Amino acid sequence: MGRGLIADDIISQIRDRVDIADIVGHHVALTKAGQNLKGLCPFHHEKSPSFTVSPSRQIFHCFGCGAGGNVFTFLTRITGASFPEVVRDLGRKVGVEVPESSTHAKQSAHANRLEQLNQAAAAWFQRNLLDDRAGGGARDYLAGRGIEPETISRFGIGVAPAEWDALLKALTQQGFTQQELLVAGLITARESGSGYFDKFRGRVMFTITDLRKRVVGFGGRVLGDGLPKYLNSPDTPLFKKGQTLFAFDQAREAIGRTKTVVVVEGYFDAIALHQAGLTHTVATLGTALTPEHIHTIRRFASHVVLLFDPDAAGVRAALRGLDLFVNSGLGVKVITLPAGDDPDTFIRKAGPEAFAGLEAGAPSLLDYALEHSVKQAAAGSLEGRIRSVDEILRILQKSEHPIEREERLRVVAERLGISQQRLIERYPALLSGTKRDSGHQPVAPRPPAAVPLFKGSPEERDLALLLLQGKLTAADVRRLRPDAFTVAACRKLVELALANVERDGRVGVRALLDVAVDDPDCGALATELSLREEHFDDVAAHIKACFDRLDLKGAEQVLRELIARLKVAEREGRWDDARQLNVQVNELRMRKAGTPTAGVVSLVKE
């Protein structure tokens, strides 16, 4: 349970729906500073901004006073409210109910059971694909679509056999009940009212995971000519189609790095683009984009590329997004593929370089919508041409950017061959309230010198920093030992990291931050090091050098302790103990002689 007896998964749901930049922005004037935002710290007096907010990591830290944490920490400090009060208030704002603890315990247990069931189903689908009899047809189909074995494994692709109750039998034999399978959307009740059958049959299966890498649902593509061609899990306690984007968990790192997300409509489209190296791609799940999707995207990206099929349905999908993106703060482009191509076939045929060329020349979503409306109205009457862009002009009225409104109005007038004044008279609100820019640009303040919180050795600091930045490999993680760190905050951070190791052996940085920022022993250290921008010429070599230095220091400490114990044994006349200790001292000295003793040169400024 979280603090105040509020369950951890409820806290996570709220945290996942809240953007810390929006919340902090209501209290602090923030300006862009690289990938982060900066402002004057609200918790201490300062003249130069040292208060930093990271939208990608959803944390804040002040390099002046050391305050740091997540959105809950910020609001408890800024408002004085208790943690449960802050959680419940945010929950109401984002539509997440925070139940009483007794109810909540049952819900949490139910969600955990559902997660286990989905994981078991995903493993079963994947085993089927590897089976000679059950998976042969699906493997041939995937090979024909150009999907490589490594991609199949990475995306957890499997197959559901064409049997009526194969999954039902397999999972009930594992101890899951029919009611649990029904709630998970894996089986369907027979129309006769007697018994159940598998929802997914004779389909290539795609595993849908959330940003916490939990298996939350499935999608299936029929093998053959059956209908529907694609079938998704229904909404369940773990899965909401209108809130979930396929492959977002795989794309999050690349999206955070490029600040751009490519949105496609299908599983194969997303997978093909990932396989081609465009790993900042996600897909909708049989629904149009929703406000919840936009909210999630905004947390990681500032630019969106919509890549839809070039047919009428694809055009409608792009136009539906227009209203959603107004005032979202996101720059949106629309890529139009050549006739007859979809993203999957285009990327396999033309390659990522051709895609980059299309993206470079892609129009904005608004320009795309205007162009479409102008083409629709080209043969109409004057009034018909005006009416054809009414919907776009209504959306323009909602824009908070008066210069953009005026410029787009000019473009519409030019394209339709109508005087701009005529359109202004039709929509007077478009230009009302426009504030003229004075033309003066604020002078950007000089960045403040960071006040380092960390007072330990360079190697401990650098390992903690690189750990929090996700740079440690699985082999590096295996070398982590809390007792090798002399700084208490580092020891606690490493303990939390080892409790959040993912299946690939690496530390889940987001999961680590979620627990570390609230920890009284290491929270301030976690936020400070997470937001420090440091460069290492050879990261892997520096990590190894840091570990070697820690090992050397550990060996020196053990040697000192052994020598101290040897002296005591000699003084007390315990000659047998002294001989054994002397052997250990000599062995350790010999091992040290074969260990490089060069010190670690840290590239982080003191």
UniProtKB/TrEMBL annotation:
Cofactor details (free text): Binds 1 zinc ion per monomer.
Entry-linked SUPFAM superfamilies: DNA primase core (SSF56731), Zinc beta-ribbon (SSF57783)
Top EC class, one word: transferase
Required co-factors: Zn(2+)
Signal peptide start-end: none
Domain comment as written in the entry: Contains an N-terminal zinc-binding domain, a central core domain that contains the primase activity, and a C-terminal DnaB-binding domain.
Family affiliation: Belongs to the DnaG primase family.
PANTHER family: DNA PRIMASE
Quaternary structure, from the entry: Monomer. Interacts with DnaB.
Name of protein: DNA primase
Encoding gene, per UniProt annotation: dnaG
